[in-house]
Amino acid sequence: MYPALCAVLAAVKSRSADARWVNASSIIAAERESVDSLISGNPATQVYGFNTLFGQFDGCSSTRQEQWRLLEKHLVGHSWEQTDRFSRLLAAVKLSQISHGGSGISPLAYRRLLTRVSAPYERSVVGDWTASYGAGDVVPAAWFVHDLYRETSENDTLAGDVMALINGHFVSTAVGLIAVLDAIRELLGILCALSSIGQVPVRESGSIAVQLASQLAREGIAPKEGGNRQLPVSLRDVSPYIDEIVASLQDVLKALENRLSATSCNPLFVDGGSMAVSQNSYLDFRLTSAMSALIQSQFLLVSLGQRIIYHLTNQQSAATPVETDVQPAKVANAIIEEMNLRNSQPRRFGGSDSQGIEDMRDLSLLVSTNVLQNNRYIRRISSIIGSVSGELINIRAGDRLTMLRAVGLHCMTEADLAIFEEEARRFTRLS
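Above: the chain sequence. Below: its structure as C-alpha cells.
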C-alpha cells in the first residue's frame, strides 16, 4: 500500500539501497551532463545554487569552494547526537526523492548517498535536527551533509552539489516517519483498554473499528454497566474513536508516501537537465495538515484514556467507599493539562527570511516533533491504565501486527514497529 515508504524502511533495516535507487544512477549521470553544459556554457546560464550564491544573494556568482563554505555557515543551532540508523534513514529518504531526477546532483554525490545507506559501520551523527523553519530543511540537512563528507572535503563535490544535497524536505519527512511509527506503537495500550471495556454496536459489524476492536479486546477484564442505564458516551460505542484514530494515521502515511514518491528540491531541472526552473517542491503542506489532525487524535486518545481510568477505578471500589481510588483519574487529568500546555501548534506560515525571498514555510518538521512529544503523554496515560488493570495494558503477541495491518503497513512485522524507537526517544529528550 505504501511502496516508497516500505522501500525506505527495507533499506534502513537491510543496509542495502533499493534497486530502483541504484538503477537511477544512469539517469542521474545523464542529467548531470546536461546540467554541466548549462552552467559552464559560453555564455553560462545562471542557475540558483549551482553557479550562484544562496538566498537573497542569488544574483552573485559562486564557485564550488564558496558553496562549500556556505554549507559550513548553515551549521548552527544546538547540536546533539542521533544514531547511525537515523543518518541512514536520512540518506534513504533523500535517495527515494531525488532518484526520480530533477535535482541536478552529480553522480559522485549520489553515489555517496548510496554508500551511506549500505555502510557496514555504526557511526552516530551530530547536528541540530529540529532547527528548521520549514522552507526546506537546509540547516539540519547541512549537518547531515557535513557528516556525509566527514572524512573528505569539498574536493569530492561538484558545483551545485551542496544545494542539491541540502535543499528539500527530506529531514522533516524522515522525522515524520519516525513520529507516526512511534505513535502507532504508543497508542496500542489505550486502544486495547478501550476495545476491552467499551462496546461496538452490531450495526457497525463490517467496519475497521469493529474488526480492530474485536482483535484487540481482552475478554472479561471489566464488567460492563448494564440494566436500564446507558454506558457513558466514551464506552457505549467506541467505533467513532477507533475510526478517527486509524484514519488519521493512514492520512499521515499517505502524506509520507506522496513525499517519498517525488523529487523535492530547488532548482528543479527539467527536459533532461537542459533547463532549470525555480519552484517550491521543498514545500508540502499535506504532511503538516495530516500531522496536525493526528495531534487532535492524540488528544482524543488521552481523553479516552482518562475516562477508562475513571471507569475502572470507580467500578473496582464502588462497593467500599473507603477504598475508592480517586487519584489515578486525577493524575491522568493533570497529564492531559500538561500535554495541552506543551502543545503550542505552529501556525505562522508566513515570514520574511533572506530579505523576503523565503517568506512562506510548511512547518512540517515542527508539527512532527509535536507528535513525538505527545507520544510521551500517551505512554504515561497507558502506564496508569496498567497500574489499575495490568491485563488491559499487556500487549499480546499479534497486537502490533493487527494495528499495522489496520493502517495498511503490510510490509512491516511486529519487530519493525520498534525500528526507530531509540531515535524517537532522543527527540523527546530535548524537552
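Strands lie at 80-82, 125-127, 268-270, 275-277, 350-353, 358-360.
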